[in-house]
Design a protein that fits this description.
heterodimer; A: globular; B: two-stranded antiparallel sheet
């Protein structure tokens, strides 16, 4: 049973990283460096709570999360594609902006510092099943662990993205923008417009990842609640070599190392707890070290 | 970068100054907009920032004490950037530099003062430099961008330092800090502003800044590092060992960040404690990019960011608005300046900047 519990926690920890990483992947496949995943997640987490607080519906909150990510995506694409800012610097500025702005807005809107008042949570998988299929008594056994509905949705979304990039023409066209924008332009594609739209979509995905943190796992916004998960997502992107399946595996690895370190912290309480906090980052560095050969990012990544 | 190639050299030299003034003006504008959203007067907001940073002798001393680490981390970022690298890991390098400096001073306390004081600072710089090596190895052998590896190393360094300060290296109290370093290894105050003594640390940082500037623009080594940024292929063809030059610049960058931590320990806090840096490493990026990564002008942007940072608590006290406002302001400044720096892309648009029109050579003399 412990193994099963560990698996469920792994899925839960994977979800935000997977969503953010997918968002980062599609934007980097189109050739725009997206280091602002942290900002997208944080803004998404905040707007999700705000909308859920105002409307009372967690589903509207989820939409708010996507909108928050898109807002940062809009700023990123404006700065990078219109004003030709260095894409990493723009991302760093946006990360700073999101950290500051969520703090200021938390104080302005809710009048508190640190943690927002609690709001309605997204339903769990078991709740969804028992609602839509009333004849299934209390849900099947495998839903007995509490897992948010967003976790299976995230995995479905990642499979969808995989199919999109493998089989659709538009997937190929987006990749063309990242590999050789001049050729794409010569083929008649609106490269800049496509890149902006892709960054916006990526922002929506990452924002949903943030919404998972605030209204899927918890039910409130906590300042700086992403705690570097956006950066882990970028590491997962490199580890997964800009390929959807690889990214799914890499996100699962990070989710597992987070879940495993939580489990270890309970069973091996005599080890220092900072070790468990640092474990996901250590695993990431270790895997980056052990990987064979060099990774190859999209050829025109970061170039206009 | 925004100014065309063949402009008067003095104008080119002064470009960072212009960028900072531009940032100041943009900052004023953002203050007015922010004040509108926060429901305070815009004049009140700007004067509260001034008041918090330079309003009293004690406030000025606090601002000056923030200047040293910001100047050094800003220098660290710009040294790496001038070699074509981005060092986001200053936070971790600073933390480990501070921790090792404190540990060295505690273990080698029987050394004479003349040896102990400089060695403490040097050990901190060395630790910062060593912490950049894994990032360089990952970049050159595994193709992992240094931005990602230095970021991950930040987290590892901060948790490691946290553990060490609470456990094996702590002073036994529940405060998560090391014992106080011996008096022989600390920097003494040379003058006092208000009731707070100011040590020579800001001067040391300024000297480091001048040395780095001269190294970068007046020596062969600095020229080779610059070539690695502007055209790595040409540099390699000209026989410059690009990887080794970049490693050297990155080591220097880490050493500067470690130096910032060591100076904080030796001149200000006299011990290491958990959560040592309030974000100096990340602010270094803003400091460097505000002046277009020219080391010699870092003092100006460091002064600006130090003033903003020192004012954040005062905003809460005087106006009752969140101290995070400063973060927003800083982010807006960074993105404005970064956007301006790249506005005219060489080879695409031939538009000249306003300054170019006013002070540059006439259009005909362009080659």
């Amino acid at each position: 049973m412990a193994a099963f519990q560990l698996f469920l926690v792994t899925l839960g920890k994977t979800t935000p990283i997977l969503l953010a990483c997918m968002g980062g992947m599609i934007s980097e496949l189109a050739g725009v460096i997206n280091f602002a995943l942290e900002a997208m997640m944080l803004t998404g987490a905040f707007l999700a709570v705000w909308l859920a607080f105002v409307s009372g519906s967690p589903w509207l909150g989820l939409m708010g999360g996507a909108l928050g990510g898109m807002l940062i995506g809009l700023m990123h694409s404006l700065a990078c594609l219109k004003f030709r800012t260095n894409q990493i610097v723009s991302s760093i500025a946006l990360n700073l902006l999101a950290a500051g702005a969520t703090g200021v807005l938390l104080n302005q809107i809710f009048g508190v510092y640190g943690t927002s008042p609690s709001v309605a949570k997204l339903p769990t998988l078991r709740q969804c099943i028992s609602e839509s299929l009333p004849f299934v008594d209390n849900g099947p056994a495998w839903t007995s662990g509490e897992i948010s509905i967003l976790a299976p949705l995230a995995i479905a979304l990642s499979l969808l993205t995989m199919a999109f990039f493998r089989w659709s023409v538009w997937g190929l066209r987006i990749k063309a923008c990242g590999e050789n924008p001049l050729a794409a332009k010569a083929a008649g594609l609106p490269v800049t417009l496509m890149r902006s739209l892709v960054v916006l979509t990526g922002g929506a995905l990452a924002g949903m990842g943030g919404a998972y943190l605030s209204i899927g796992e918890l039910s409130a916004f906590v300042e700086h609640m992403t705690q570097g998960r956006g950066y882990l997502a970028i590491a997962a992107l490199i580890l997964g070599r800009w390929k959807p399946l690889g990214i799914l595996l890499a996100a699962l690895l990070f989710g597992f190392s987070e879940a495993f370190s939580e489990w270890l912290a309970v069973s091996w309480a005599n080890l220092p707890h900072q070790f468990f906090l640092a474990l996901p980052y250590l695993v990431c560095l270790a895997v980056l070290t052990l990987q064979i050969g060099k990774t190859r990012p999209p050829s025109s990544l970061g170039r206009l | 970068m925004s100014i065309a190639r063949n402009q008067h050299p003095i104008i080119k030299q002064l470009e960072p100054l212009v960028a900072t003034l531009y940032a100041l003006m943009a900052g004023m504008l953002f203050c007015i907009i922010l004040a509108y959203f926060l429901g305070t007067g815009s004049f009140e907001l700007i004067s509260a920032i001034w008041e918090g940073a330079w309003g009293s002798p004690n406030a000025a001393a606090a601002t000056l004490s923030k200047l040293t680490p910001l100047l050094l981390t800003g220098l660290a970022v710009s040294v790496a950037y001038q070699a074509g690298l981005l060092n986001i890991g200053c936070e971790g390098q600073l933390t480990l530099g501070a921790l090792s400096a404190a540990c060295f001073a505690l273990t080698a306390s029987q050394l004479p003062r003349l040896l102990l004081m400089p060695l403490t600072v040097l050990v901190g710089a060395l630790a910062g430099a060593l912490w950049t090596l894994p990032a360089m190895w990952l970049r050159q052998k595994r193709g992992v961008h240094e931005v990602v590896s230095t970021l991950l190393l930040n987290y590892v360094a901060i948790y490691l330092a946290d553990y060490l300060a609470r456990g094996p290296l702590g002073d036994g109290s529940a405060m998560a800090r090391t014992a106080e370093i011996p008096l022989e290894s600390t920097w003494r105050a040379v003058c006092s502003v208000g009731t707070i003594g100011v040590t020579a640390a800001p001067w040391a940082a300024l000297i480091a800044m001048c040395l780095v500037h001269v190294w970068l623009y007046r020596t062969c080594g600095g020229y080779e590092a610059g070539a690695c940024r502007s055209n790595p292929l040409a540099a390699r063809a000209a026989g410059i060992p690009v990887n080794r030059r970049q490693t050297r610049s990155f080591l220097l960058s880490g050493a500067l960040a470690g130096l910032a931590g060591a100076l904080e320990v030796a001149a200000v806090h006299h011990r290491f404690y958990a959560a040592f840096s309030p974000g100096y490493g990340f602010d270094g990026i803003t400091v460097a990019f505000l002046v277009n990564n020219v080391p010699g002008w870092t003092w100006l942007s460091a002064l600006l960011i130090a003033s903003l940072r020192a004012a954040d608590k005062w905003l809460q006290l005087a106006l009752g608005i969140s101290p995070s406002t400063i973060l927003v302001l800083q982010a807006l400044l960074l993105i404005t300046v970064a956007s301006r720096v790249r506005l005219p892309v060489p080879g695409r648009t031939r538009r000249r900047s306003l300054l170019g029109h006013l002070f540059g050579y006439p259009e005909q003399t362009r080659q």
